[in-house]
Design brief:
By secondary structure, the protein is mostly helical. It is built from three helices and no strands. The termini are far apart.
């Protein structure tokens, strides 16, 4: 088992593992901010959790739409000029 893990680790370059590690930290940090942001919004702006949920849902839908649009534009025009 340990040898399989080591061989898998050694298959990829160090830069790959740095990228994967930083991506993991970014995703965990992004996921952890939402509960605290919800508490902040409810206490600072005096709104209910339902309204905060609607705001987060709008954020998710707009992110999905933006990713789809950005991917389509990238496929059509390329990543760089």
């Amino acid at each position: 088992m340990i040898n399989r893990i080591k061989s898998t680790y050694n298959e990829f370059p160090k830069n790959f593992w740095v990228l994967i590690g930083s991506f993991f930290i970014d995703r965990v940090g992004g996921a952890l901010i939402f509960p605290f942001l919800a508490l902040y919004i409810t206490s600072h702006f005096q709104v209910g959790m339902t309204q905060v949920g609607v705001i987060f849902a709008l954020f998710a839908v707009s992110s999905l739409g933006g990713n789809l649009l950005g991917g389509n534009l990238t496929d059509r025009f390329g990543r760089k000029k």
